Amino acid sequence: MESLDLKTLELRAINATLQAEGDGSNKSFKITNPLGSHAIAVGLDAPIEVNVHGSTGYYCAGMNKQATVNVLGSVGPGVAENMMSGKVVIEGDASQYAGATAHGGLLVIKGNASSRCGISMQGIDIVVHGNIGHMSAFMAQAGNLVVLGDAGDALGDSLYEAHIFVRGDVKSLGADCVEKEMRMEHLDTLKRLLDEAGAEAEPSEFRRYGSARTLYNFDIDNAGAY
Amino acid sequence: MDKTPGTHPVKPWTFDDYTNSYIRRAAATGIYDIRGGGAKRRVPHFDDLLFLGASMSRYPLEGYRERCDTSVELGTRFAKNPIKLDIPITIAGMSFGALSGQAKEALGRGANAAGTSTTTGDGGMTPEERGHSNQLVYQYLPSRYGMNPDDLRKADAIEIVVGQGAKPGGGGMLLGQKISDRVAEMRTLPKGIDQRSACRHPDWTGPDDLEIKIMELREITGWKVPVFIKIGGARPYFDTTLAIKAGADVVVLDGMQGGTAATQDVFIEHVGQPTLACIRPAVQALQELDMHRKAQLVISGGIRTGADVAKALALGADAVSIGTAALIALGDNDPALEEEYQKLGTTAGAYDDWHEGLDPAGITTQDPELAARLDPVAAGRRLANYLRVLTLEAQTIARACGKNHVLNLEPEDLCALTIEAAAMTGVPLAGTSWVPGAEGA
Ligand SMILES: Cc1cc2nc3c(=O)[nH]c(=O)nc-3n(C[C@H](O)[C@H](O)[C@H](O)COP(=O)(O)O)c2cc1C
Predict the structure, then answer these.
(1) Which residue in A58, B125, B368, B384 has the fewest CB atoms around it within 10 Å?
(2) Chain B residues with CB inside 8 Å of A222's CB?
């Protein structure tokens, strides 16, 4: 495992090293002394493994493709933002906008996630072992958000086609977000995601939320909801 | 019969025919009017400025012999590969979705021929537009529809859209009629639904966050390409200052006349400052930061002629960008289509229901039959011609002012026709040395 120390190397050098890995690579890297730095391991595009030993600032693993990034600490805002594929696992907590606008891959947060988790998500799967903050899955378009704990206010506001599964309490649902029937296919998806995220929970303990689709085409009678 | 002469019937100025029709429309529908284009009302504009030309104390360049350069570089502050343009006129961001594939192709062809760049828009980058544009600026918008790192790395520059002159503080809108299969797929949304684009970015809020976001984008693209920040003409002095502090290579400043694909009419006409009023405050901000001509300023919103281009540059811009004018050059609102405009209840020159997707010119539509009406090669040629005329005109003016590069035009070459324009631009009122609001004035 190649070791990259942020105390001695510039961020640019570290990211350039990781970004230089190509499609066939299965190398492992260890990043030490992240010291809350921003934009660590961003723009990766190879099936490599990166282990970050400590906590990071904004946008860790931003726009990730293919790579597995493990953070042995907590992360700042926008972890795995716009991720395309691969896997990002946070041992600690995540700040706002975790997984924002991401298209694919799996984001696992073993602690809690702050507000706007999964905002505008476009296909990513997010599993949060703890709780999530308010306005999570705002305008979420596609993908799955799984929460083992509780969800804050206005969950799934202005939701499009993303699926939300919550085991605990939901403080309130946002505009156009409703509880929906949990069918077999949803239980299967949930089981697969819980397994992949190493989460110990029964799919049957969750409730499913989705879009009522009443805001999809403007209707004056819904004006108050916009 | 007693015939007392009556006065001529008077329609109130406050409640004129247009206003009454607006009220009737609102009463019938219960929803505000959405349309494309920019502000239609008259606001102080470049027409309110004039060039002085050479005289006893300044001498002109010889028309066709002495060189007057028009090339500009955008992104010299931090980027390894700044954008190099032959002319100081770029094509503004307009999305595939708002525009047909043919229109996007035509914009690319025209821009290539004239040696300038085009810009993507809300909805992402199509392979066609990348293929047809030698220099392509990739917009990074609040909606992030279709945003992906592969396209980001294919871009020649990244433009972070904070605002647009037509709607500073507003999000986007693409109505269901224009959501074809392809547009829906690019945006990861169901077909036929209205697409509300967010007005704020999902993963950063203030300028301090933006600085980190820019750093991330540069890390992903290896610090190679310039990062532009596009702002609507709201508070140009502070917005430019903050954009530079956040690390922008280029500030794109779009005044209230700037076009849009679809926005509420009330927004277009009542929010934001005229383009003319935005330039001096932005230039002043750059000068105070010692960044004028180091970070570049691109001005847009109602640029039509070579004179407009020259005036924007003289006030301190490094380049301009055009949307509406480019569409007209392609064939938008052409009187030859009058019969069809009449069927849509409008007339050539006034057609602005671009959001409905019924454009008879095949430009602002996703209908394959309508779109096929636009020949991208011929339309691209018209755009190239138009861009050349703008450039020649700006050069003509620059030479007359004795400048061997259009960027050497300066406020001193100008006078203002109105007190308003003088106050807004800091250029003296014609025939006087008076600049309203200036110290000692
Ligand atoms: C049809 C159309 C679509 C547009 N789409 C976008 C867009 O996606 N993103 C953006 O930042 N601006 C968009 N704009 C605004 C232009 O980028 C530009 O700011 C404006 O057109 C400049 O003013 P002008 O039209 O007077 O030249 C659009 C404008 C038009 C006319």
Answers:
(1) B368
(2) none
